[in-house]
Specification:
alpha/beta; five-stranded parallel beta sheet; 8 helices; 32% strand; elongated
Length: 251
């Protein structure tokens, strides 16, 4: 099996090559490249390998830029130091990954998966992956300024139990059970807060993970939530969001 390695850290590349040789003597590393430019040039003048390992951040940019410049038809395993949120996005895009620092058992599982599937490479959604990288460096809203009578009050985002839409207004309910009206739509808030901490369970409610007191199996394959300070009959995870909700909880 001919393998291409795209990695700009020499130590990481040497480690990967060593592990591949240990796990499968039939593997031949045909090239080790370390930049977007060199990868593009290589694919323009060489036969497609059986498998490629792509680090995400290279010496001259993101490896995703390669797919905008040249066709890459072989299966790809990304190697990444990014967190679980990024990894879940790679899964959605049907791209395998290895989290650095490299572990032999993880590499073996990735190779086994490749051998079992032997499917043509998936089309790489470059714009989705670029958006993903932007999200990794995005700063999220840390506090909300609220008007209380003639006074202004600042509430830390981490102190919010739930944002809710009710009677054409949006409210914030804090973990100390205080409710405030805020000048944002629920859609705007969802874009502004950290998706690791908040989940939009349906069109009315955006909840903080720490606010959940109980999760109950509900009719029609849905889930009903009970929060510490807020409960309602429609505090329900819609059926189409149940799988995503479970992944969010298990992150």
């Amino acid at each position: 099996m001919k393998v291409l390695i795209v990695e700009d850290e020499g130590i990481a590349a040497d480690r990967l090559i060593q592990l591949l040789e240990q796990l499968d003597a039939s593997i031949e590393v045909v090239e080790h490249l370390d930049s977007v430019k060199s990868v593009v040039e290589w694919f323009e003048s060489h036969a497609t390998p059986d498998l490629a390992f792509f680090d995400i951040q290279l010496a001259d940019g993101l490896s995703f830029e390669v797919f905008e410049q040249v066709e890459v038809s072989c299966p790809i395993i990304f190697t990444t130091a990014y967190d679980q949120y990024a990894i879940e996005a790679f899964k959605v895009n049907s791209i395998d990954y290895l989290l650095k620092p490299m572990v032999e058992a993880d590499l073996q599982r990735a190779l086994d998966k490749f051998q079992k599937q032997k499917q043509p490479a998936q089309n790489v959604d470059v714009s989705a992956l670029m958006n993903l990288m932007q999200q990794q460096t995005k700063s999220y809203k840390e506090r909300f300024v609220i008007k209380v009578g003639e006074h202004l009050k600042s509430v830390l985002t981490e102190e919010v139990e739930i944002f809710l839409s009710e009677n054409k207004a949006t409210y914030l309910l804090s973990k100390d059970n205080k409710r405030f009206i805020i000048d944002f739509t629920l859609d705007q808030i969802q874009e502004a807060v950290d998706p690791k901490s908040f989940f939009r369970i349906n069109r009315k409610y955006l909840i903080h993970i720490d606010g959940i007191r109980d999760i109950i199996t509900y009719s029609n394959s849905r889930l009903k939530l009970e929060l510490h300070h807020f409960n309602a009959d429609d505090l329900i995870v819609s059926r189409e969001k149940v799988a995503m909700f479970k992944e969010w909880l298990d992150r």
